[in-house]
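Continuing the series of single-chain predictions for the mutant panel. This is the parent chain; the variants come on the following pages.
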Amino acid sequence: MRVAVLPGDGVGPEVVAEARKVVDATGVAIEWSELPWGSAWWQEHGEMMPPDPIETLRVHDAILMGAVGDPAVSDPVTLWGLILKLRQELDLYANVRPVRLLEGIPCPLARQGPEVCREGPRTRDVCGDATTAEVGDAVAARVAS
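Parent structure:
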C-alpha cells in the first residue's frame, strides 16, 4: 500500500509521526511518500503545493494529512490553496470528527450526536441545506449552551 504523507504545519508533523508509528506497529506493509506541502512550501514557492498535486496524489492508495496552517500564511491561502483544493479535486467528504465520550468526564459535546460536522466540500450533503458558516455557528452555539 502506498500512502502519501502531508505532515502539515504546527503540531501536524508531530501528530502524523505518531500516527505513522501506530500504523507501522500493525505490521501492514506501507510505502510512505512524504510530501513537503503546506505553509513552509508556500513561504519558499508562493503556493501551498506544486501545480500538479492531484496527479502526484492519485498514484497513492491513501493520504495521511496533518493539521495545516501557520500564522504567517492567511487562512484563505491555506484553505483554498491546499485543504479545499484537495478535498474538492479528490471528491473527499466533509471533515467529520467522531467524538467518543468517556464516562465520568464532563464534555460540552455530551448533548451532540456522535459526530461534529466541520467545513468541507460536501457540507450540505452531511449537514443539510446550510452554509459552512451557518453550520459552524450552529455547532458553536450548541457547544456553548
